[in-house]
Specification:
- With 495 residues, the protein is mostly helical.
- The chain has a single domain, classed as Amino acid/polyamine transporter I (Up-down Bundle), CATH 1.20.1740.10.
- The longest helix has 45 residues.
- The two termini are 39 Å apart.
Length: 495
């Protein structure tokens, strides 16, 4: 095991900014990094949860809403790409925000990253049991069976994460191929089914292509609230950047590619399947709408195939949750913003074993608590419900870091002013409005979610004080940085 460098408190040595000697460099390519980002979004599982909800909220104008929402996501992904050109560090937003804006805000960003990935992954692990059993045709899964399956999946994915990013990426690609072939095939089948006017279908009309939806009943802002959060997770490509070929270039490109592919998949699947059955039947089967629609078109065989895609999506999401969460913890620990033990890297596997074990244990423990302590499920539900807001906050903070770091380039030309200034600022502002609407809605409906969000931030402040005064992290003494108009002309010429 190799302890992270730059951890001494007294002498305050320089932090480690180049860790190619620890994590394995050039272990995976751009395609594998893209798949990791897409797996974090968990397309099949996400569609299973949101198919009926999006159809109802958009009044069947989901296609145009999904495509419009992809625009700010692409702009923000490009901001991530530009920041990665500056510093390809698996701490990503934690380091970028800290070095460009303020280290205290950077630490809070890192804290939000950890909470988001742990809680978001737990949201998947608690349904692994039912998802896996659905493939066999089992109607329900008992608590014991669900817990056993979740524990087995977490253990297997943890072992793969420890053995190396390369083997984990290969497993991700294998699961992704099966998952995407199934859901895209089912979506195309559904579109043909609707266009062929099968009995019981909901026909495509002009309302499908209008923001106001069928009959003018679309809740546009409510739809954007859902759809923006559906895209969340593509940034996973940046947290493995130290292990990707051309670490400063490929991870950022992979993020942009991941958003674009997710936009196409989500749009095709939503538009292709939302009209297969009537609105009443779709909403009546809301929680299992994807499987139900497949059952209508192809019977038990197709329904089980879709259940397999959902199960693989959840399993893949668990794997990426461990991989990415571990690297975020590792990146923070190398600055001693977290205990230095978590900066240890295995000589044999070139992976952050201690950080991986931490994330794996947290996932297993939180999943067990949720499944066994029914009295706490409501509280967990409130935490899970705010993951979307946490993701949006991360995207906003990171976009602001890009604006501040590249501020001299922004005023250097009209092109940079628009591409690197106006567009990212607009995208961040759009997300900020989404968060505001979400919090306002929660305050009027479920104030527990608002207090949960404030509680997460408060816990982050406590952890920040521990890192600053207890661990005496060098991160809080880093100077602020910004790019000059002439800096890295080759790398940043296309930003």
């Amino acid at each position: 095991m190799i302890a992270g460098k730059g951890l001494g408190a007294a002498a305050a040595p320089e932090p480690v900014l180049d860790r190619q000697d620890l994590l394995k460099p050039d272990a995976i390519g751009i395609a594998q990094a893209t798949v990791i980002g897409m797996a974090t979004s968990a397309p099949a599982a996400t569609v299973a949860i949101s198919l009926a909800l999006i159809a109802a909220t958009t009044a069947y104008s989901s296609g145009i809403i999904l495509l419009i929402a992809a625009v700010p996501m692409l702009i923000i992904a490009n901001a991530y790409r530009r920041l990665n050109l500056w510093s390809a560090n698996c701490g990503a937003s934690f380091e970028w925000v800290g070095r460009a804006i303020n280290p205290y805000l950077g630490f809070l960003t890192g804290w939000l990253m950890i909470v988001t990935y742990v809680v978001g992954t737990v949201a998947g692990t608690i349904v692994i049991g039912p998802s896996v059993l659905a493939v066999t045709g089992a109607a329900t899964a008992g608590t014991g069976a669900s817990l056993a399956i979740a524990a087995a999946v977490i253990l297997v994915m943890l072992v793969l994460a420890v053995l190396g990013i390369r083997i984990s990426a290969r497993a991700q690609i294998g699961m992704a191929v099966v998952e995407y072939v199934i859901i895209i095939g089912v979506a195309i089948t559904g579109l043909v089914w609707v266009l062929s006017h099968h009995a019981g279908t909901y026909p495509i009309t002009s309302g499908w292509f209008s923001l106001s939806g069928v009959g003018g009943h679309s809740d546009v802002m409510g739809a954007f609230l859902i759809v923006i959060f559906v895209y969340g997770g593509w940034d996973g490509t940046l947290y493995v950047n130290e292990e990707v070929e051309h670490r400063k270039v490929y991870p950022g490109r992979a993020a942009v590619i991941a958003v674009a592919i997710l936009a196409l998949i989500y749009t095709l699947v939503q538009v292709g399947l939302q009209g297969v059955v009537s609105p009443a039947k779709l909403q009546a089967n809301g929680g299992s709408a994807l499987v139900y629609v497949a059952q209508v078109m192809g019977g038990t065989a197709l329904a089980r195939a879709v259940a397999l895609a959902i199960a693989l999506s959840v399993i893949a999401g668990t794997g990426t949750g461990i991989i990415l969460g571990a690297r975020i913890v590792y990146g923070m620990a190398t600055y001693r913003a977290l205990p230095g033990f978590f900066a240890n890297v295995s000589r044999k596997y070139s992976t952050p074993v201690a950080s991986s074990l931490l994330i794996g244990v947290l996932l297993a423990a939180l999943t067990a608590v949720y499944l066994l302590a029914t009295s706490l499920q409501s509280a967990f539900g409130d935490v899970i419900a705010i993951v979307g807001q946490l993701l949006a906050l991360l995207y906003i903070l990171t976009t602001l870091a890009a604006l501040i770091y590249y501020r001299r380039r922004i005023i250097a030309s009209w092109r940079d002013a628009i591409v690197a200034g106006v567009l990212p600022l607009g995208a961040a502002g759009f997300l900020a409005y989404i968060v505001y609407r979400s919090v306002s809605s929660a305050w009027d409906g479920s104030r527990a979610q608002v207090w949960t969000l404030l509680g997460v931030v408060a816990a982050g402040l406590v952890m920040m004080l521990i890192a600053r005064f207890g661990l005496r992290s060098v991160f809080f003494r880093l100077p602020r940085e910004s790019a000059s108009p002439e800096q890295e002309p080759t790398a940043t010429a296309s930003v």
